[in-house]
Specification:
306 residues, alpha/beta, eight-stranded mixed sheet, single chain
Length: 306
């Protein structure tokens, strides 16, 4: 691949990270505001949802449409969280000093339940709140419009452990739920007889779809999880989270090391915005928190990228 010539395309790679994806929203919003062209996108989890909104919005009304579509997505997240029981009470927020939900009795109960019971036992009916959130936001006719950027959403095949890539013609609500399926919380998502988990396990995000059939001129990588963490995690949830981060990071590092020399890499790091946040904040959809991450992403995009 190293000998191939680039085709002038600009590719966008979007990590997943739950509510931390609002950082990615901010980065992409600023890039679009500044006139950034986007020809292809690959994302997982919240990054996949942003990719869908950007793709549909670009078809509808160019960069302004893409920015508006992303706002609708994250407003929907905030509205859903406002009705969720998983919120920190004023005293709990004061004790945690920020956006940490770990002092919430419901969060503590969830941690215990996830260690003791399977998703099928915790959630026997397979309820996934993402489905209701996304159902009227995904518009397949826009995703398959000839003007749409080439979009790839990745999920992990539970049996093979490999990434499976869904293109514009195959992306729907089921695919997005599969790409964001946390195996300790939700039963695997079934699509055409195959079971899928979060796409981040096989690459957060995978870069291969963005390099085919020919490498792009530039690859823009937006991280929605911290690449480095100080200290050693102590609780089972923190340990599991860090193991997942390390596994995803190693896959991504291997792909980055194999990038053709002809591809310019631009990376927006989330460490400054996310390092101080605990794992529980990935489940925090409070509007003020999402806005804080959004502004952090816009600020990061306003700086020269390494």
């Amino acid at each position: 691949m190293a000998g191939k010539q680039t085709d002038g395309r600009i590719a966008l790679a979007l990590q997943g990270g739950g509510s931390h994806g609002a950082f990615t929203w901010g980065v992409v919003d600023r890039l679009l505001e500044d006139g950034q062209r986007i020809d292809s996108i690959c994302g997982v989890s919240s990054g996949a949802m942003i990719g869908v909104m950007v793709t549909q919005g670009l078809v509808q009304d160019g960069p302004a449409g893409a920015r508006a579509a992303m706002r609708r997505l994250w407003q929907r997240v905030a509205d859903a969280h406002a009705l969720s029981p998983l919120q920190a009470a004023p005293l709990e927020r004061w004790l945690s000093g920020g956006w940490d939900l770990s002092n919430s009795m419901l969060w503590q109960g969830m941690e215990v339940a996830m260690r003791m019971f399977s998703p099928a036992q915790i959630n026997p009916f397979g309820h996934n709140p993402l489905r209701a959130l996304l159902e009227d936001l995904v518009e397949p006719h826009l995703l398959t419009d000839p003007r749409a950027p080439r979009l790839t959403v990745a999920a992990t095949d539970v049996q093979t452990g490999r990434a499976v890539f869904f293109d514009n013609t195959a992306i729907d609500v089921d695919v997005l739920c599969a790409s964001a399926c946390l195996p300790f919380v939700f039963p695997a998502v079934q699509i055409k007889g195959r079971a899928y988990w979060d796409g981040g396990y096989a690459g957060n995000p995978p870069l291969a779809p963005l390099l085919r059939p020919d490498p792009p001129a530039e690859l823009i990588l937006v991280r929605a999880q911290a690449a480095h963490r100080s200290g050693v995690p102590a609780t089972p949830t923190e340990i599991t989270n860090r193991l997942n981060e390390i596994a995803c990071q190693n896959v991504l590092d291997a792909e980055l090391a194999a990038l053709p020399a002809s591809v310019k890499l631009r990376t927006y790091h989330a460490d400054d915005a996310l390092l101080h946040l605990p794992i529980s904040s990935k489940m925090n959809g409070e509007a003020a928190f999402l806005r804080e991450l959004f502004e952090g992403g816009r600020a990061a995009a306003g700086k020269p990228a390494p």
